[in-house]
Amino acid sequence: MGFLHSTIYTHTHFALALHNYDDDSDQFNISDYYPPASQGAIIVTTRRQHIVNGRTKTLNIKAFQNIEDSLAILKTRSKRLDVRTDPYAKLLAERLGGLPLALATAGTYLQHIPLTFKRYLQEYEKRWNIDPYRPTELQDYREHTLYTTWDISYDSLKKKDLDAAKLLKLLAYFGNQGLWYELFSEGLTERSPEWLYNMLTDDLSFRGVMRVLTDWYFLEVDSSSGLWSMHNCVHDWTLAALNKVINTQYYWFAIDCVNATTREFDTDFLGNVVFSRLTSHATRLANQQFLEAIYDPTPDQLDQLLFTSQLLQDQIQLTTAEKMYMRALAGYEKALGSDHTSTLLTVNNLGLLYSDQGKLDEAEQMYMRALAGYEKALGPDHTWTLGSVHNLGNLYRDQGKLDEAEQMYMRALAGCEKALGSDHTSTLETVNNLGNLYSDQGKLDEAEQMYMRALAGKEKALGSDHTSTLLTVNNLGNLYSDQGKLDEAEQMYMRALAGKEKALGSDHTSTLLTVNNLGNLYRDQGKLDEAEQMYMRALAGYEKALGPDHTSTLDSVNNLGLLYSDQGKLDEAEQMYMRALAGYEKALGSDHKSTLETVNSLSSLRHHYGKLNKVKRIYMRVRARIRS
Predict the structure, then answer these.
(1) pLDDT at 619
(2) How far apart, in whole angstroms, are the C-alpha atoms of residue 229 and residue 221?
(3) Is the C or the N end of the chain the one with fewer CB within 10 Å?
């Protein structure tokens, strides 16, 4: 075992520290190391409470819950001043899960190595994608006892409870947050590992094994929810150390568990908040190490990958969804051919994903390929073909090609009305988007007609609280705002926000869109403090969901610049404009409308700022003359 010890004597008193006492075998008895004298204190660090006798006082050391505490360690150890303003420092702190040792190690590394927080985070993620043919390179963690303590505990666990050890190895294929009995039991199929059947016979058997893992401090349980979780770094270790060779049977079992859990719900819109508990597990399944290990998936397995990709996309895990879509596409092309409808469906979904990511050129390529394939395989009037036509209309609108967008929408609308009827939800979605187009074109009366038709139809077909209905409600808010009907706009926004928070959660991008729109409304009403609250909430949510460089994030940054300018906070406004401008130029190009509008705002600000400085200098000179 070989735990470390150190003794400090101060006259007749001492302090003895015994570190990493995680071995409860009979080979070592911790009391043998106690000094015979009693004028002192003994500190034992261990991951297992019950191995210390009852005369001791225990103190549970847990990870930081407050992100500010994590950032404080990063700042202290890295000796960098930009920790709280760098969005990637926050992402790194969240990735390390509040573990002080991991935060201190990362901070110390960054003190000596001139990497940005963004670059370090990329390196961290890359290094956890362990090559199965060579050992992990994260020696810093081994040297600081993280790996050592877990290795020791796992070796002992295998001897005492082999089922628990097997389950711990399996948990590497799931997310590390929100583990519950039904997640595993619902996924049992004929291809599941045999040893799981006895364990999942009932929830008591499962809870017993999970209790063992909790006693060994591999897991934690939330007493209020009854859900188990695993620390980020422990989770990384289960993959790097326990699964150096990927077990594809474990992988497909995890896929079955995630997809089977959706059976009891309406899966038409996988962005619903009820599915958010599956997000971390679906994200784990897109780990590159796993995707590279699954050779020649069957068409049924590819369908499972595609469904999981859709779940990830609707839960706004866009980068992760892209990886899984690409793996599904490669599998379909190999197994079924490039023109098969399953292949084309994946291509179409990739177009939707690229559009969500703001990669409009890539989205157009996917839509055009899907459309050509559907027209050939299914005909020009098939509903799948019309879906691609509709998606192209959305893309052209995003690109500012309004005439082309209108042609696509009109074709999709005529086709859907003929094939599905005027009240079908697909028809109504095209009607809604025609309203968006007319609004962009300044045809506000026509836009209102489209929105009112779409809203009435959706309320009848889907209900007043359905997310598709709320989308049209939000759009009506935009229209009323453009018409100067600010009270009516606020009513629409508040209805949309309440409904989306309930259905999708407060951090979903659709919810944040309405939050941002409320910020715009409050700014127009002169309620600048309320506007700032909305913009800050939208910005924080977008940074978390989409990343600091996504165009939706940059829109919130730009809006904050406009607000700060209105408030006379010129330095803060300039910082926001500069960040938005750099992001827009990289994502959209120097000639895009958003880029040019930010350039104009920045120029106006600096012109005004220069005038103020000139007035201030004149005032100071006059004041100096008066005093003299």
Answers:
(1) 42
(2) 6
(3) C
430 close to 413: Cβ distance less than 8 angstroms: yes
Q: Is the model's pLDDT at 139 over the cut of 50?
A: no
Closest CA to 363 of 392, 390, 338: 392
**Strand 13-18, strand 40-44: pairing:** parallel
Q: Are 51 and 34 within 8 A, CB to CB?
A: no
Q: Is the pLDDT of residue 107 over 90?
A: no
Can you tell me the distance from the alpha carbon of 567 to that of 588, in angstroms, rounded to the nearest whole number? 28
Residues in a beta bridge with 6: 17
Over residues 577-587, mean pLDDT: 86
Residue with tokens 């270790």: 237
Distance CA 272, CA 504 (A): 5
Indicate the average pLDDT of the chain: 84
Buried b / exposed e over 71-103, threshold 16 CB at 10 Å, is bbbbbebbebeebeebbbbbbbbebbbbbebbb
- State the SS3 of 482-532: HCCCHHHHHHHHHHHHHHHHHHHCCCCHHHHHHHHHHHHHHHHCCCHHHHH
pLDDT in tens, 407-450: 999 999 999 999 999 999 999 999 999 999 999 999 999 999 99
Q: So what's the pLDDT on residue 132?
A: 37
Tell the residue number behind the tokens 């879906």, with chain if given: 387
Terminus-to-terminus CA distance in the chain, angstroms? 81
Whether residue 472 is predicted with pLDDT greater than 90 in this model: the reply is yes
- Strand ranges across the sheet with 40-44: 5-10, 13-18, 40-44
The pTM (predicted TM-score) of the whole model is 0.73
- Residue 402, pLDDT > 70, answer yes
What confidence score (pLDDT) does residue 131 get?
Answer: 41
Q: Are 515 and 534 in contact (CB under 8 A)?
A: yes
CA dihedral 529→535→537→542, nearest 10 degrees, is -170
Strand partners, 18: 5, 44
The position carrying tokens 């990927």 is 246
In this structure, of 32-36, 71-75, 312-316, 615-619, the range with the lowest mean pLDDT score is: 615-619
What's the rounded mean pLDDT across residues 505-511? Answer: 90
* Cβ 551 vs Cβ 533: under 8 Å: no
Report the pLDDT value the prediction gives residue 147, as an integer from 0 to 100.
Answer: 59
Q: H helices of 113-202, where? A: 117-128, 139-143, 146-160, 162-170, 181-185, 195-199
Euclidean distance between CA atoms 20 and 205, whole angstroms = 30
Q: How confident is the model at residue 215 (pLDDT cuts 50, 70, 90)?
A: confident
What is residue 133's predicted lDDT score, i.e. its pLDDT? 39
CB 577 within 8 A of CB 558: yes
Rounded CA gap, 24 and 391, in Å?
62
For residue 474, give the amino acid letter. Answer: N
Q: Do residues 495 and 489 touch, judged by C-beta distance below 8 A?
A: no
Query: Could you write out the DSSP letters of every residue in 310-333?
Result: HHHHHTT-HHHHHHHHHHHHHHHH
- Locate all alpha helices (DSSP H) within 315-382, ordered by sequence: 318-335, 341-356, 360-377
Are 370 and 351 in contact, with CB atoms under 8 Å apart? yes
Other Cβ atoms less than 10 A from the Cβ of 4: the count is: 11
Structural element, H or E, at residue 398:
helix 383-398
326, amino acid identity: M
- Confidence (pLDDT) at 130: 40
Tokens representing 622? 């006059």
